[in-house]
Fold:
Amino acid sequence: MKVAIIGQGYVGLTIAAFAAEFYEVIGFDKNSKVVEKLNQGISHIEGVESSLLTKWITQGNYVATTSGSDISNSDIVVIAVPTPLTKDRKPDLSFIESACRTIGENIESSTLVINESTSFPGTVRNYIKPMIEKYSNSQTQHLYAISPERVDPGRGDFNQKNTPRLYSGLTPEATIRTRDFYSKFCDNLVEVSSPEVAEAAKLFENTFRQVNIALVNEFAQISNALGIDVYETLSAANTKPYGFMKFTPSAGVGGHCIPVDPTYLAAIAEEHGAPSSFIRLANEVNLEMSKYIVKRVTDDNAGTLQGKNVLIVGVAYKPNVADVRETAAELVIEHLREKGANVSWHDDVVGNWKGDSSAPLYSSDIAIVVTKHDSVDEKKILNCAPYVFDTTGAVKGAKGL
Ligand SMILES: NC(=O)c1ccc[n+]([C@@H]2O[C@H](COP(=O)([O-])OP(=O)(O)OC[C@H]3O[C@@H](n4cnc5c(N)ncnc54)[C@H](O)[C@@H]3O)[C@@H](O)[C@H]2O)c1
Structure:
């Protein structure tokens, strides 16, 4: 069976690596540099080993391509392209539209199209299906389904095999075939009654996290005002065996999911006249954390950062990944520069970002830890500046939230 996966990023390549054990996989991506590297057996995604990729390529089970015609006789097509926000923070389905165009223009016989990109309820039924039909040259009817992705890049304990996967088709046949496809490499498949339930569940999972992160970020500020240690308090609350789930404060939320997905839910809520005040408020609180941190650092440094050399330690959006999308470090740096600080950053996992390279981990006036990768030595962080502010709770002995 031939499976085409549109988009070879965090989600698409991860799926490809699992599916290639059982299917002939074609990884379609618009980015020719990514495709070139993948065909050399070089993975750009944490959790997908280059050696595994090489194995699938050698066995003839995986090939990457930029050419739409290569997917023409696929039995299954999986969509795994970005679903970001526009500049005015509205859902941006342009990548999905482009993927639909590739499918419509190239697939001639009936296939199963599964969407894994995160979007609002109704995307498969009211957007993907009509869009593919619009671009299709033939009258062929395809099957459509959704199986929202839950991959957590860089995570060791949960992967495609042991993370329960939701799925649902637009028709019973689409549902059955979707189950058959994933059952080869996923142990726990959870069928829901409609694609809309699966799409909404994915958005609610990430909104749940966004709101709880905002709550704990606000609680960190309350704790500090009261002179109470927030981490000790959270650990104390976490001894309750039921009705509590521990979240920890941070400089904000980053990545392609938590800062983005809830806004998809808010947008569709607004379209239907339903409220979304929690989502808006949580966004606001999380975005304001960067300002709060810069204020705390300024207050601790005689009220001014003018001319101070400030080193940001860790600019990835979370530990042990190179992903900088929506990273909280960006806003922290912006606010520091507004205060007249000379800002550089250290992150050897990221390496290069916005035209700059990772700076060495030493000789600064102030260091602010935004993300603590496992590979970064705590002692080196403490020694890199006379004043170290840690937003992660991972560096013992530093000032912190
Ligand atoms: N990253 C995560 O942890 C994660 C987890 C769950 C769900 N998701 C969702 O999965 C989707 C994909 O996210 P990602 O993190 O894999 O993105 P990504 O940026 O890592 O990868 C997307 C890939 O798609 C390619 N692409 C863009 N438009 C294309 C097109 N029209 N045709 C072919 N390729 C195209 C890009 O070049 C890129 O390589 C998003 O909807 C996201 O919300 C992501």
